[in-house]
Structures are given as C-alpha cells and as structure tokens.
Design goal:
With 318 residues, the protein is an alpha/beta fold. The chain is built from 9 helices and 15 strands. The protein starts with a strand and ends with a strand.
C-alpha cells in the first residue's frame, strides 16, 4: 500500500489510481473512506471484496460537486434544496430516488441511492482531478472499528488496496448522518454530526424511519466493533460494577475509583467525544486486555449519534 501525502504529485497519483480502477483510502471529515470509481462496476466490486462486505449492504456515492447530483438521483423533492444549500458540502448523506442507470451493485438493487458531497479539501481535490464520483464506505473490514487516521487504514487493509492518502485525523470522527428523502416524509436513518435539531428548521422530520425505509450502511445491530470482546454499561451502574473493570480496557468520561488495567478518559462534550471515539477504540483494541468496556455517555438527544455507535459496537455487560 502506497502512503500518499497532500502534495500535488500525490493527489494526481491518487486520481490516476482511481481512474485505473484501483482502490485508494481517502480522508473525509467523518472517517477515512475506501474509494473506488463509482462508474466502474469492477472497482466497486473490489471494495466489497477488500472489506468482506455483504452484497446487500449499499454504498454511499461521494460526488465531486452539486452539478453531479442529477447524474445519480432521478428526482430531488423541493424540500431537499434548503437542506442541500445549508449542509452540503458536509457530513450529510441524502437517500434519494435513483436513476434507472445507477449500477445495482452500488445500491444493492434498491430503487434509491445514497449521495454525499464531502467538505474535506483533500477528497475534493482528488475528485476535482478525477471528475467522477467515488463509492467510499469506511476503509476497514466490514463491521470493525472505522478508521479516523491513515495508520488505522494501514493496520487493517495493508496489502489489499493500492494506497492511502494521509490527511491526518478526521475532524468529525463518526460517519455521516443519513437522511432519507425518498419517502413521503423525511427521516434520519443513521444519526451523525448533523442532528435532528439542526435539520428541524428545514424539514418536517418523522420521529422514526418507516419499516420499509431503504437499507443503508451502518444499521446492523452489531457494527463498529473491536476485535476484542466489547461491552457497555450505563454511567449510573458503573461504580457498582467497578470490580469487573480490573482486567478490562475501559473508556469513560469519569475516572473510575477502581483502577482498570487500561483507561482512556473520554471528552465530556458530544462533538469532542465523537472525534476521539474510534481512535480510543482502536487503542483499547490494541491493548493487552482481554476485553473492552465502555461506560456510556448520557442518554440525551445531543449524544444520540455517539450512543448509536456505541450501542452497536458493544454488547450489554452481564
């Protein structure tokens, strides 16, 4: 795997590799994405193989700009345009009716397509050179911890992809919000940095997604998981269970009174916690502890996206 840096020469090389149908891990503001030319079905199939990703799990298409939107979406509802104007480019994925020529391998045979325009400057510079979209799920084995640094990518995909472009740590740290605009009422299918409160001035959001909502990435019951057994516990139960921590790698906002084998104190605000989350899970997974324990942050609306990732990454303790 080549290590690329943010130089004009390496950005040219990243675009050239993608144009040849090879896979390149690229930084976004959320996590590193495993990018392949979205117009090349063989490159898209290679993404599935590298991640060991099931074929029924659709991909997000990352657009070079707004002028590419209607090459993939069959239609855009009127209420979507204020959202697009406010939040694109950014950590928001829109699920829209797909054009009939969208490759089935991208949307897993559904009649919708997930589209995003990222705000990361390096990704944008690569796409400007490529002048076509990329499909780019997180650059990690399926269901494992998402990567927020180039080193995370190398540790999991060495020898399986052509290159990784090192853009430093990701600013947001968790995957994009996925907003379904394909049905009669907009709904959030995956929470992220763009919250329901932020979208509410622009949309009449459904409280829950409809049972027949499109399948989207990251919604399996177990996802984002370390290789080590990973468990979770609510803060109110933490002290009474502290004796169980002693052999664990522990992530918590509050320092425990009983010292665990390995401890990482997490930030006390949702945005900072999200930015640190996957790096901390990678570190805990690399410790010599036999398991990982996460003390969950507060069960409050501001923490919804972080708790979503943790509830999928970790099983209940006990």
């Amino acid at each position: 795997m080549k290590s690329l840096h943010p130089t004009p020469e390496d950005l040219d090389l990243a675009a050239s590799l993608l144009r040849q149908g090879q896979l390149v891990a690229l930084p976004t503001e959320t996590v590193y994405g495993l990018a392949g030319d979205a117009t090349n079905p063989e490159a898209v199939a290679a993404i599935f193989r590298a991640k060991n990703r099931p074929a029924d799990h659709p991909l997000i298409v990352h657009l070079p700009g707004l002028d590419h939107l209607m090459n993939w979406a069959a239609s855009v509802p009127d209420h979507a345009w204020p959202v697009i104007e406010r939040f694109w480019p950014g950590p928001l994925t829109l699920v829209l009716p797909a054009r009939s020529d969208v490759p089935a391998i991208i949307n897993a045979g559904q009649d919708t397509v997930a589209l995003r325009w990222s705000s990361h400057p390096l990704l944008q510079q690569v796409l400007d050179r490529l002048q076509r979209p990329v499909a780019a799920p997180s650059a990690n084995p399926f269901c494992r911890i998402s990567p927020t640094t180039a080193e995370h990518v190398r540790s999991h995909l060495e020898g399986q992809i052509a290159a990784v472009l090192d853009g430093g740590p990701c600013a947001v740290g968790i995957e994009s919000t996925i907003l379904d605009l394909s049905g009669p009422r907009p709904a959030i299918l995956r929470p992220g940095a763009i919250s329901a409160d932020m979208l509410a001035p622009y949309l009449d959001l459904a409280e829950k997604a409809a049972p027949d909502a499109p399948r989207v990435p990251g919604n399996l019951a177990l996802h984002y998981s370390p290789r080590q057994p990973c468990y979770r516990i609510e803060r109110k139960e933490a002290e009474s269970s502290a004796v169980l921590w002693q052999e664990c790698a522990v992530l918590a906002i509050d320092a425990p009174s009983t010292a665990p084998a390995w401890f990482r104190q997490m930030p006390s605000t949702p945005d900072a916690y999200a930015q640190a989350l996957y790096a901390a899970l990678h570190e805990a997974d690399g410790s010599r502890c036999s398991s990982v324990l996460v003390v969950l942050p507060p069960d409050e609306p501001a923490w919804r996206a972080v708790r979503d990732r943790l509830l999928r990454a970790a099983r209940p303790l006990g």
